[in-house]
Amino acid sequence: MKKIMTLLVAAMFCLTGTAKTADEVISELEKATSAQVIRFDKTMFASYLGKADSKKMEKLKNIDYGCVLIIEDADKAKVEKFNKITDELDDKAYEPLVTVFDGDDRVKVLGHVEGETVKEVFITVADGEDCVMVHLNCNIPKSEIDSMINKDTFSFN
Predict the structure, then answer these.
(1) CA separation, residue 20 to residues 3, 54, 112, 133 (Å)
(2) What is the pLDDT of residues 108-139, one digit of tens each?
(3) What is the pLDDT of residues 24-75, one digit of tens each?
(4) Read out DSSP for 71-137?
(5) Are 64 and 139 in contact, with CB atoms under 8 Å apart?
(6) Pick from 21, 120, 117: which is nearest to 109 by CA?
(7) Which of 76, 75, 99 is nearest to 87 (CA)?
(8) DSSP string, 38-54
């Protein structure tokens, strides 16, 4: 019995050693790929929201802080590194919301939900040469998520 318990404890340590938080993933990618990282807090975001169409941007008021990580014109090694490191996110903390693959292109949206509130959103996008990651720390009621992402909120014209 002691051997089984020892093996279980060792397995738990191995699993927790590989799981990473969003902040750890961002820091590791920034160092490994010389990615550009833009961090923002509620004050910076509120300043931007004040200049934008307030009706459309009002839905984003529950974002406390976050960052955008950008790797432009990445070689194959950097894209593989990006994908490998983002795959190491703690799957106990972030549940997959959307995953789309099309050849070398991939989009993943992960979320951390506590009760009826989305606390974090983590979006990764990678194609053959560019990688983008968006991490948002927020307090968004689950009931408002659908209304945040629609044609009235974001326009790609």
Answers:
(1) 28, 36, 13, 15
(2) 888 888 998 989 988 899 988 899 999 999 99
(3) 889 999 998 889 999 988 787 667 666 666 665 666 778 888 999 999 988 8
(4) E-S--HHHHHHHHHHHTTB-TTT-EEEEEEEETTEEEEEEEEEETTEEEEEEEEEE-SS-EEEEEEE
(5) yes
(6) 120
(7) 99
(8) EEEEHHHHHHHHHHS-H
Pull the structure tokens for residue 111: 């979320």
Between CA 59 and CA 61 the distance in angstroms is 6
Nearest to 124 by CA among 149, 154, 88: 88
For residue 88, with 0-12 CB atoms within 10 Å meaning exposed, 13-18 middle and 19 or more buried, which class applies?
Answer: middle
Q: What is the CA radius of gyration of the chain?
A: 18
